[in-house]
Amino acid sequence: MQDLHTLLERSVSQLGFELVDMELSNRGKLIRLFVDKPEGITIDDCVLVSNHLSNLLAVETSVDYDRLEVSSPGIDRVLKKIDDFERFSGQRAQIKVRMAMQLPDAKEPRKKFLGLLRGVEQGDVLIECEEVHYRIAFSNIDKARLAPEF
Questions:
Q1: How far apart are CA 139 and CA 57, in angstroms?
Q2: Most buried residue, 32, 97, 127, 133, by most Cβ within 10 Å?
Q3: Domain containing residue 9: CATH number
Q4: Is the dihedral of CA 138, 142, 145, 150 positive or negative?
Q5: Record's Pfam families (predicted)?
Q6: Residue 1 pLDDT greater than 60, yes or no
Q7: Given phi > 0 = left and psi -120 to 50 = alpha, else beta, which region is 21?
Q8: For residue 60, what pLDDT is reported?
Q9: ∠93-138-88 over CA atoms, to 5°?
Q10: What is the domain range of residue 35?
C-alpha cells in the first residue's frame, strides 16, 4: 500500500494538488482520495485528478479496484502533516493524542484537545484551549482535524 500511496501522492502533486488522505476499502476494491490546494478544490479539479489517476492506475500498477473516488477533504479536514498545523493556524481544531498528557492543575491526564491552532514550534503543535496554551509533540498526535464552529 505504501508504494501505491507514494505513486498517487507524486501524481497528484504533479497536477498541482495535495493528497490529504487516502482510504482503501477492506477488500481493496475502493480507493478513496481526498485532495486539496490552497485556494480550495472544485468538482472540476476532482474530475481532472480522477481521470488522470484512472489512466495512471490502468498503466502503471496491477492494483485491482472497482471504484476510484476523489473528493475534497471537507471543512473538517484531517491534519496529518506538521505543515498542516502551521497552515491552519488560527483555526479551530480537535486533537487526540496517543499518550495522555498530565497537565498542571489537572486531576486526570488529558487525551483530547479542542481549541485554536497557534502554529508549530520546534516540532511541537501549539493549541489554545479555553485561554490556556498547550504544546503537543507532533509525534504524540494520533488524530487531528479541523473543527469549524457553525
A1: 32
A2: 127
A3: 3.30.300.20
A4: negative
A5: DUF150_C (PF17384), RimP_N (PF02576)
A6: no
A7: beta
A8: 75
A9: 35
A10: 2-71
Q: How far apart are CA 121 and CA 107, in angstroms?
A: 27
Could you tell me if 64 and 104 lie in one domain? no
Provide the pLDDT for residue 121: 96
Sign of CA dihedral 34, 37, 43, 48: negative
| Residue labelled with grid coordinates 509533540 | 137
Count: domains in the chain: 2
pTM of the model: 0.83
Q: How many residues in the chain?
A: 150
On average, the pLDDT of the chain sits at 92
- Is the residue at 108 inside a domain? yes
Q: What is the 3-state secondary structure (H, E, C) of the chain?
A: CHHHHHHHHHHHHHCCCEEEEEEECCCCCEEEEEEECCCCCCHHHHHHHHHHHHHHHHHHCCCCCCEEEEECCCCCCECCCHHHHHHCCCCEEEEEEEEEECCCCCCCCEEEEEEEEEEEECCEEEEEECCEEEEEEHHHEEEEEECCCC
